[in-house]
Amino acid sequence: MAHEILTLKSVHQTEKYGYSHVAKNGNTLYISGQVARDHGVDCVGRGDIEAQTRQVLTNLQNILEEVGGSLRNVAKLTTILTHHSYRETFRKVRPEFFQDPAPANTLIVVESLASPDFLIEIEAIAVLD
Predict the structure, then answer these.
(1) Quick check: 125 and 75 in contact, CB under 8 A?
(2) Confidence (pLDDT) at 11
(3) What CATH class has 4-127?
(4) Which pLDDT belongs to residue 42?
(5) Full-model pTM
(6) Percent helix / strand / coil, the chain, rounded to 5
(7) What span, in angstroms and rounded, lies between the C-alpha atoms of 43 and 60?
(8) Do residues 62 and 71 lie in contact, with contact meaning Cβ atoms separated by under 8 Å?
(9) Residue 103, preceding bond cis, omega within 30 degrees?
(10) DSSP symbols for 68-107
C-alpha cells in the first residue's frame, strides 16, 4: 500500500523547511516532530519549557483534528528534550492533553534541536478509527 503525504492548514507550512507534517499509510499517521511553532511566530515561548510543551501538544492536537482524529488516536510518542530537568514539566503538562492510559512514549535528551530556541520536539504515530 502506498503512503500519502497530507497537506495541512492547521499548523505552520513546511515547504521552506523541506519536510511534511504527516504521512498516511492506511489508517496509520506518521506525524513529524512538532516544535513550538505556530502560524505566525518562529518560536512560541522562547526559554519557557511549559509554554513550548503546550504549543507542541496543541500542534499535534490540531493536526489530528484536521484529519478527523483526536489525541486519543495516538499510539506512540517520541519526546525529545534539550535538558533532563524539563522532564517534570513535560510530565505535568502531558495529562492536560492525554487521558489515562497515556500512549507509549520514548523520552530522549539531546544537546540541541534544529534551532537552539526549541526546547522540546514530539513526534507521533496515530491510528485512525
Answers:
(1) yes
(2) 81
(3) alpha beta
(4) 81
(5) 0.93
(6) 30, 30, 45
(7) 16
(8) no
(9) no
(10) T--GGGEEEEEEEESSGGGHHHHHHHGGGT-PSSPPEEEE
Name the 3-class secondary structure at 36.
coil
Pairing mode of beta strands 4-6, 22-25:
antiparallel
The pLDDT of residue 1 is: 65
CB atoms within 10 A of CB 20: 15
Cell of 80: 525529545
The 10 Å CB-count burial string (b at 16+, else e) for 90-129 is beebbeebbeeeebebeeeeeeebeeebbbbbbbbbbeee
Decide: 124 and 32 in contact? Cβ < 8 Å.
no
What are the beta bridge partners of residue 74?
126
**CA-CA distance, 118 to 69, in Å (whole number)?**
26
pLDDT tens series, the chain, 129 aa: 688 878 888 887 767 777 777 889 999 999 999 999 988 668 999 999 999 999 999 999 999 999 999 999 999 999 999 999 999 999 999 999 999 999 999 999 999 999 999 999 999 999 999
SS3 63: helix
